[in-house]
Amino acid sequence: GEGDRKDFLKALECYLKMVKKGHAYAQFAVGKLYFEGKEVTQDYTKAMVWYLKASSQRLPDAQDAICDLYYYGQGVPKDDSKALKWALKAANQGFAPAIRSIGIFYQSGLGVVQDYTKAMKWFIKAAELGDADAQVGLGQLYRDGHGVLPNFNLAMEWFLKATNLGYLEAYVCVGLMYESGQGVPQSYSTAMGWYLKAADRGYASAQYNLGTLHEMGQ
Fold first, then answer.
1. Smallest Cα–Cα separation from 71: which of 58, 84, 55?
2. What is the pTM (predicted TM-score) of this model?
3. So which residues are the signal peptide here (predicted)?
């Protein structure tokens, strides 16, 4: 995503040369170009064709991308069961985003019976691999007592791990803990400080929470 159009076309040329040699990641990269519509007409169906080529070589990035196409119904009918099947293919190769996605399926009851305990199991696997989204998901399960007794200390621990990775939603989660006094002394000023960290980087949820605190006179 860096550089001008000339740089992009040069990169695309390199990808296409690698595709002819059957390079899996190049196949995935071309699929991603069609998915994002960068210098080509956006086409989810063509993206799927290239993702399938790469997934036939067991590239987890492509398997996870196919999961997303089925999950959102992009270029194919929405199908949570098929999305889960592809997520499992990538997860079995230790691909953290796919492992986290399976946690989301169980958390939300998409394609499976809702099961917070199983969701937690998958979130833990992804969180321990350094997936910030999973760390936040795990923190929310501990905070809300889903699949486990509420534990604000563990919730905060996982939220903070995600903030160390710069994950903006985690800043909001920490701010909410301070605003509500969950496991920590209630402090609007501390909450505001956490919201500001994300708001300054354009995160809308943090900006909204800041506005709410200002309306409260904080």
1. 84
2. 0.82
3. none
Asked if residues 209 and 178 have their Cβ atoms less than 8 Å apart, the reply is: no
Structure confidence by residue, pLDDT tens digits, 126-164 = 999 999 999 999 999 999 999 899 999 999 999 999 999
- Taking the chain, what is the end-to-end CA distance rounded to the nearest angstrom? 40
